[in-house]
Write a structure and sequence with these properties.
The complex is a heterodimer of chains A (about 375) and B (about 290). Chain A is an all-alpha fold and about 375 residues long. Chain A contains 14 helices and two strands; from the N terminus they run ααααααααααβαβααα. In chain A, helix 2 crosses helix 7. Chain A is globular. Chain A starts with a helix and ends in an 11-residue tail after the last helix. With about 290 residues, chain B is mainly beta. Helices cover about 15% and strands about 35% of the residues of chain B. Chain B is built from two helices and 17 strands. In chain B, strand 3 and strand 4 form a beta hairpin. In chain B, about 35% of the residues are buried. The chains are: A mainly alpha (about 375), B mainly beta (about 290). At the A-B interface, loops of A face strand 10 and strand 11 of B.
Chain lengths: ~375, ~290
Amino acid sequence: MIRLLHIFLVDISCLFFLLSCQHEEEVDHHPTPYFFDIPMFYPTELNIPDDNPMTVEGIELGRYLFYDGRLSGRTDPDSMMSCATCHIQANSFECGIDHPTFTGGKTFGLSGKPTPHTMLPLINLVWNSNGYLWNGLISGGNPSPYHQNLESLVWMGIVAPHEMAGDTNRTKALIQSIKGYPELFAKVFGSQEVTVDRISKAIAQFVRTLVSSDCKFDRYMRGEEQLTESELSGYILFTTEEGADCFHCHGGSGNPLWTTSLYYNNGKDSLFTGEFEDPRDRSHVTGNSSDLGSYKAPTLRNIALTAPYMHDGRYKTLDEVIEFYSHHVVWSPYIDPLMHHVSRGGVQLTPKEKADLKSFLMALTDTVFIHNQAFSDPGGL
Amino acid sequence: MIVREGGLMGMRSMLVVMAWMVLTMMCACDGEEPESEDHGKIIFTFFHRVEGEPLQIDTMIYTNAAGNHYLITEVQYFISDVILHQSGGSGFLIDDWTDIYYIDNDIPSTMTWEVFDKIPAGSYDSVSFMFGISQEKNISLMFVNPPERDMFWPDVLGGGYHYMKLNGKWLNDGMSQNRPFEFHLGIGQIYSGDTIDVNDITGFVHNNFRVTLPGSSFQMTTGDTVHVAVSMNIEQWFTGPHTIDLSTFPFNIMQCQECMRVGCENGKKGVFTVLISKSKEQKSKSKTNF
């Protein structure tokens, strides 16, 4: 009887302890909703998951984590890595070609393993509704719950050998131990517990705020600034089939994201099997051979900042890219019909037209974006 | 005490007001959703066919009237201003918020259009629609979201949106490599000179055209759902008044008004056909067994 009473009292005390703990962990959890100011002509449909609504506190936490090298689960300066190690604001949150570590824009992970493709910039992704990465592997249509959205990309970045090569338990434990983080997690999620799911959600919230909408061409569209004659000629070339014919894949005034976010074989190569096979092209996601050699059309916004170019970084300069589209497009059975100029090797621009097209592309550089303090390193906790 | 009395009176009054409001709302709700006695609904379903068979994309199995073998990769187009024509010349314009509808063979949800509008009961002689977007509604920047957004037609070429993108590849006997083609229709340009220079554009041509679907009469009675199955018969774009030989026809035609004129004249003849059927709205009645 005494034993039973003892068990009962222990149970009751445990219950009170649990309740009191719960009470202690409960914090004033009223995160402030974040409202997007959608720029003129931009899509009104935002890709924000229902289970990760954007909040001011969530974005703040995500910004700290984005720039924190301890996200890799390590504290040694030589082996710390954050999102910002490679995604650099000055380069439109891409690595850029002049990185001191990642020479020529060729990135590699903490394991030393090279990343399979060159980077894609982290801009305007709140409007991306058609998959992430060059092949669209991360997509709402992917049956795997780990390959769905921007949040999935953060998780992947922590564990992938060619990125942080981390361990989620180490990352969780380390972030949990850093003074300031548990309090921020509590403000966002209601408790101080650090989980990779929460880390991913917070960083994804921050990345969704990285909006670029103030390049010279934006101001031209808003009637605030005039383009030069060369830039205007370049834009006309960009949007005409008899010119450079870029707009079907890369947008234009009607699509200020400067990409359709769709996948195309743009005629860089003629062979795609055997030693030429890329196990990470679009066909390996869809299973359709017609997608061999297809990759996402990247945004051309800030394109001047994001060399090297193409999925494999084969072109170092915009001049090389323009030269390719002008004279070196090659046929394969898989080339996209939009690359119809392949019958004459490309769009055959004259030297002046190439210069005009380049001038226009430079007008897509958003210097306001790359200097926006809200996107910069907030300093460590 | 006065305060207390006033409080009680206030509560009593509030209860009366609340009861009145509830009764009013119930009456209003009854009035807002009257049982329909004089209308039905209409559902459009879009099909893409070649020689009467469902389109198989990315497959070089078709041959057009000129003898070109061809395959199709994308079919994307707008229809607008759908009118259900009644006897005596009157007609019912399907508004459905926008009266412009986008169809895309890569997006299954676009292939069925369950029209919001309630269709008045009566006898309808035919169904017609504008292929593309009518001139006054074809305004640049009106679509900011994909997929419609990606149909934009460059302003320098007339602006607005593509009426259609029909992309594919063709191959003639004896050729080792197929060739891409883009059969894009939209606003055409008139150039003053012999060269295609946008600085020489002197005018624009709105190539949209009205399609009256043959054999599209139907009777709408109360509670009917009329199913309008619209087929685009793709081979007809390359034949009809004009036989288009892809080996000589330009592989891109956005800046070739003559090419678009030829394409549209073919489009008016036999590209679109229709099959109409009806079903009666099934009203489910809940039944509980104890």
